[in-house]
Amino acid sequence: MAPRMDRDAAIARLGSDSFEVLVVGGGATGLGVAVDAASRGFRTALVEAHDFAQATSSRSTKLVHGGVRYLEQMDFSLVTEALRERGILYRNAPHLVRDLSFVVPRFHWWEGPFYGIGLKLYDALAGRLNLAPSRGLSRDEVVAAIPNVERQGLLGGIRYHDGQFDDARLAIALARTAVAHGAAVANRVEVVGFERRDGHCAGARVVDRETGREIAVRAKVVINATGIFADSLRRLDDPSAPAQVEPAQGVHLVLDRSFLAGDTAIMVPHTDDGRVLFVIPWHGVTLVGTTDTPMPKADLEPRALPDEVEFILRNAARYLARDPRREDVLSVFAGQRPLVHRGGSGTATKSLSRSHEVIVSPSGLVTIVGGKWTTYRKMAEDTMSHATIVGGLEPRPCVTETLQVHGALERTDPALPAEDPLRTYGADAAEILAIGRTRPDLSRPLHPRLPYTGAELLYAAREEMARSVEDALSRRTRCLLLGAAAAAEVAPRAAEILGEELRWDAARRAREVESFRRLAEGYRLPA
């Protein structure tokens, strides 16, 4: 059995141990760095001011992909790197990453050779790590794969393959991987300053947001992996540090499964603003997105703008026979991408770099910015290459290319087929089933429209460092994204289950329910 995520033990270590690597930020990038550092044998700690993957890393399009649209921009190196990382993640996290078939519907004769050649190039760039070859489809084959596809003018289509995953569940799996390799990992621990030794950044002052206690954490090198908030931390180190991150907002709408019956996704190659749009089956619903809107500042809990919602509905309707309407939206969520800023203000976010960049400040604070979920492992490897030098650490090889993620389970395991809701837990699913056998009251579904049980919430509090109803219903399970109204209805039961494990009194339980219901309102479209 893997070590549990014990927050109290991690907090105690932050104040007593001396670390070689301190990672700030518990999203995809920070967790990837912690796994890389700990698996190399470095004494590693990670602190997250909020919850793991609470911002950008739980609000993605749920794809592990090379980025088809970057082919049109001739950015072959970015696509090749991402396709290689897609193949590595598909191999190392078989319980969380699966092959997803996409169809590009064709309504003009020239789209056949244009997209067909592009997707054959996509296959070739993936090389031996390709998931499956692309091929052309007849009109009837497209209709069979996507029954709700717009049929007027439909000539055929092209099928290709990419990876799909559950982003927040992968974040928790990475946190547990880091813990299994000896890292001290804690959420709700905020950096409020840096420790210096001879002008060098030699640790950080952090505050446990649950108790208010301040702790001095010693480390040979500190890594800023805070995504959209990276500039704020850089300026805590150096108030004159120039901006490196431009947040760009991506919005997704969640619809009923009937809008995309079957297991095939749609890739819309050109929308009103030139971006691609995806219509994707995910956890029994249909996910549609995304947008690309420049934002003036980083926001932990961004909200969809009315124009973004209308943009998605309008463009999706062009490819769906049954057009989605506002009243069909079960949930709407927004996230901000940390795009690397290299030009003047006013640059369109579609042209800003999705590649990553490592920056070392004069004090030795190492910052990693940019990138995306698919390339998190390579980003971590590059970051540690710099951090090893900055911290004067003994050079040690990166091992994450073949390191399996916590919970890894054979893709063909008959006990947990791809459609089983517990599949995302991998080998840990047995522990959740055991809770259900011991506590039959927790084995029942939380809600008729949600695929989760009370046992998963208890497991989240006991083993996965869930500290609030939001943690449990938004990220340990995906209730909030799958249906905001249903999630709000579940909140009292969630507070009861978590409160029993975390010893909340009645007042705390009531506050948790009220807080979550206010949050869930922001995931519903106003009438």
Write a structural description.
The chain has 527 residues and is an alpha+beta fold. Helix content is 35%, strand content 24%. It folds into three domains: 167 residues, FAD/NAD(P)-binding domain; 157 residues, 2-Layer Sandwich (D-Amino Acid Oxidase, Chain A, domain 2), CATH 3.30.9; 101 residues, Alpha-glycerophosphate oxidase, cap domain (Helicase, Ruva Protein, domain 3). Strand 1, helix 2 and strand 2 form a beta-alpha-beta unit. It starts with 6 loop residues before the first helix and ends in a 6-residue tail after the last helix. About 2% of the residues have low confidence.
CATH superfamily of the largest domain: FAD/NAD(P)-binding domain
Q: What general outline do the C-alpha atoms trace?
A: globular
Q: Specify the helix fraction band.
A: 25-40%
Topology, number of strands:
20
